[in-house]
Specification:
9 helices; 58% helix; four-stranded antiparallel β-sheet; Tetrahydropterin Synthase, Chain A; alpha+beta; 326 residues
């Protein structure tokens, strides 16, 4: 320590080496302790106020998504409905928020048995597409609960399905399955509007026979189709026989008519032929020429085979024509 005392004495010759001073303890300085306590209180109060302001601000904000409705309730009464996405505000702690889905929802109906018009049992498995169109009515009638809505949908759709299927036979249902869903949907009508709900579509995933009845029904359907096919075959054969008989009759009649027409034409031809012969023989010049042509035709008919020699007597009519021609 003497070294450092001598060092400070050389640098500051007019000063004495300062003695180290100890900071007063809190017990020895009450004023400093009081200031620290007050400062700490101010910090705590500020943090409390900041935290409360954050809680109030968060409670006042209402964030609406694109696939939902946000409804503001005050003392149980709906005062505002937000359907567009964005940030809105409400009175904190006084007003509350209820959320209702806005998008199209799918509900898979429980598999159920239905009875057809001809008292046959069928198993139906369907689903429904639906959405909330009026969130206020939906909240008032169904408490804004999706499960409550699905229970109502299940009851209404099942009743509609039962009514439609009970008015059709099993064969009509199987052959017209593509139109069945639309018939069920049309039969529901606007019954869900009282709950603020719209049914978008009702579709049938599976509509079939109970497993224990399938084979018997299929066998009966095959037998019925075979009977129908045999009926069509017999009807076709009967119509074919009738058409063949009618055609044969028409052919016979036409052949008879053709023969009669041919006989008539031949008679007319022979009559005309005789008339021409009469006219030819009536004129001496034409008669000689006709006799000559006929003689040539007779000679031509007589000269057949390889023997082309014709021997005539002088008094033969043919020879007379040739001699006369000479």
């Amino acid at each position: 320590m003497n070294f450092w005392n001598q060092f400070f004495h050389n640098i500051y010759p007019g000063r004495q080496n300062p003695q180290p001073q100890m900071e007063p303890s809190p017990q020895k300085n009450p004023e400093m302790v009081s200031r620290a306590v007050k400062k700490m209180k101010r910090v705590v109060i500020f943090l409390i106020i900041l935290f409360a302001a954050m809680i109030i601000a968060l409670n006042a904000m209402v964030v609406t998504e694109a696939n939902e409705y946000k409804m503001i309730q005050q003392f149980g009464k709906i005062v505002t409905v937000y359907s567009e996405p964005g940030l809105k505000f409400k009175l904190p702690f006084v007003q509350s928020v209820r959320q209702v889905p806005k998008m199209v929802l799918i509900y898979d109906l429980p598999i159920s048995d239905v009875i057809t018009k001809d008292k046959k049992t069928m198993v139906a498995d369907s689903f429904v597409l639906w959405r909330v169109t009026d969130p206020v009515i939906f909240l008032q009638t169904l408490n804004g609960n999706v499960s409550n809505a699905e229970a109502r949908i299940s009851t209404i759709v099942y009743n509609s399905m039962k009514n439609v299927i009970s008015s059709l036979t099993q064969t009509e249902i199987i052959s017209g399955r593509d139109k069945l869903a639309n018939a069920i949907f049309q039969n529901i009508g606007e019954g869900m509007h009282q709950y603020g709900i719209e049914l978008v579509a009702v579709e049938t995933k599976h509509l079939d026979l109970p497993d224990e009845n399938k084979q018997a029904v299929y066998a009966r359907m095959i037998s019925e189709r075979n009977n129908i096919a045999a009926s069509y075959t017999a009807q076709g054969e009967s119509e074919a026989k009738q058409i063949k008989t009618q055609t044969d009759t028409e052919i016979t009649v036409r052949i008879s008519q053709a023969n009669a027409e041919a006989e008539k034409l031949m008679a007319e031809g022979e009559s005309r032929y005789m008339q021409i012969l009469a006219e030819a023989y009536a004129d001496p010049e034409k008669a000689d020429f006709y006799s000559f042509v006929r003689s040539l035709d007779a000679v031509s008919a007589a000269m057949v085979g390889n023997n082309k020699t014709l021997i005539l007597t002088k008094d033969s009519p043919i020879a007379e024509i040739f001699y006369g021609a000479g």
